[in-house]
């Protein structure tokens, strides 16, 4: 029994630090998220040594920055660059109005795991994936400290998840329903499971893995198909008398609502849903599907009849120990606002629509 924080707990602190604008120390480097960095902290950091801005490969592609480190790129921060310059590299909002002017100088060689761990933390904090990295010579009192290798390994490991509470919850679609709450031990968002009826654990259960969409699920946005899919899935389970719907808090395919709104703003400039994610520096889909598989297993389900049009969800579930006995299509009506989005999902993401 010890009071010293575990690596998972330290990572959770580091994520919170980046969100509020505090740098963290990763492998002797001071690392700060560009999105939340304050001007006075930037000054303090720059006084310590040569500053490097680390961005992801998709963002580097947009900015025509050389990528020497596979999934990430480094830019030497010019002497006269201020916070606005850093933000313009990180945030594509102004790319078309005021394009960033290169050429960018890209350092090579050396250990980039601190940069990589910093970007992974920024992503998991749902910030723009861009971090400022400055070498640190002396001690850094009060700052969270991490070793890059173990930090990266831990972040790639499946989060432990525990059931927290459950209660009966009569729904319009099915009066005999129960809501279960699951909490990951890494400080990330809780996820929910709606259990309808009393499905047998011995046969494939009618299931839906639904990713949170505040705009579609709550506001009735016409830009996507999420709201109608959520209600159609619950209605189908109500009609069948049983089923399980996981409501996974992976808003915006895992990038968070703020970044999804940045992506929508880019879509208003003419980019499609996949291009917008890339310009922001994200992959098309940043969701961790092990979470859904883990919750199903925790609830005692081994096989599902999965309501989805996304073949990747089927493959991911099968890859993580849940047998998909059948794929049940979940096609909802098109409208003039979502038809382009649905076409792009079919063309670029392999959705069967
Ligand atoms: N980044 C981003 N996320 C979006 C956009 N439109 C919708 N989303 C998110 O996409 C996710 C859709 O999730 P799902 O409906 O579960 O997944 P799906 O991969 O489309 O697959 P199925 O609906 O099962 O066929 C939600 O988290 C939405 O918030 C967008 O333009 N950009
Ligand atoms: Zn949606």
Throw out a few tags for this protein.
globular; 37% helix; alpha/beta; 6-stranded mixed sheet; 353 residues; 7-stranded mixed sheet; binds guanosine-5'-triphosphate; Rossmann fold; DHBP synthase; binds zinc ion
Order of helices and strands: HEEHEHEHHEEHEEEEHHEHHHHEHEH
Total of helices: 14
**CATH-defined superfamily of the largest domain:** GTP cyclohydrolase II
Distinct compounds present: guanosine-5'-triphosphate, zinc ion
Highest CATH level, the class of the largest domain: Alpha Beta
- The residue-averaged pLDDT reads 96
Q: Strands of the largest sheet, in order across it?
A: 7-8-9-11-10-12-13
Largest sheet: 7 strands, mixed
- By CATH, the topology of the largest domain is Rossmann fold
CATH architectural type of the largest domain: 3-Layer(aba) Sandwich
Report the C-alpha radius of gyration, rounded: 22 Å
* Domain module tally: 2
Helix content: 25-40%
Query: Which structural class matches the secondary elements?
Result: alpha/beta
Distance between the termini: 53 Å
Given the C-alpha coordinates, what overall shape results?
Answer: globular
């Amino acid at each position: 029994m010890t009071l010293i924080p575990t690596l998972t707990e330290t990572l959770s602190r580091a994520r919170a630090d980046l969100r509020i604008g505090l740098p963290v120390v990763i492998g002797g480097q001071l690392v700060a998220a560009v999105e939340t960095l304050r001007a006075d902290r930037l000054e303090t950091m720059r006084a310590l040594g040569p500053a490097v801005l680390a961005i992801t490969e998709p963002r580097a592609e947009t900015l025509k920055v050389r990528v020497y480190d596979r999934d990430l790129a480094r830019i030497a921060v010019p002497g006269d660059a201020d916070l606005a310059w850093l933000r313009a590299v990180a945030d594509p909002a102004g790319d078309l109005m005021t394009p960033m002017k290169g050429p960018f100088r890209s350092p090579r060689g050396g250990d980039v795991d601190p940069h990589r761990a910093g970007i992974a933390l920024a992503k998991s904090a749902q910030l723009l994936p861009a971090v400022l990295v400055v070498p640190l010579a002396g001690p850094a009192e009060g700052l969270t400290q991490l070793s890059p290798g173990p930090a990266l390994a831990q972040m790639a490991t499946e989060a432990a998840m525990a059931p927290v509470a459950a209660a009966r919850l009569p729904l319009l679609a099915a009066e005999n329903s129960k809501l279960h709450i699951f909490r990951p031990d890494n400080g990330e968002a809780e996820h929910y499971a709606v259990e309808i009826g009393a499905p047998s654990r011995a046969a494939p259960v009618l299931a839906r893995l639904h990713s949170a969409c505040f705009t579609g699920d709550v506001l009735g946005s016409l830009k996507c198909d999420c709201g109608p899919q959520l209600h159609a899935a619950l209605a189908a389970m109500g009609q069948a008398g049983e089923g399980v719907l996981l409501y996974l808090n992976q808003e915006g395919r895992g990038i968070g609502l703020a970044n999804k709104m940045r992506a929508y703003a880019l879509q208003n400039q003419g980019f499609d849903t996949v291009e917008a994610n890339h310009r922001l520096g994200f992959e098309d889909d940043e969701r961790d599907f092990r979470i859904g598989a883990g919750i199903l297993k925790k609830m005692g389900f081994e096989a599902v009849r999965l309501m989805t049009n996304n073949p990747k969800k089927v493959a991911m579930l099968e890859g993580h120990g849940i047998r998909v006995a059948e794929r049940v299509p979940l096609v909802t009506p098109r409208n003039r606002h979502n038809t382009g989005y649905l076409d792009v999902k079919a063309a670029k993401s392999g959705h069967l629509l």
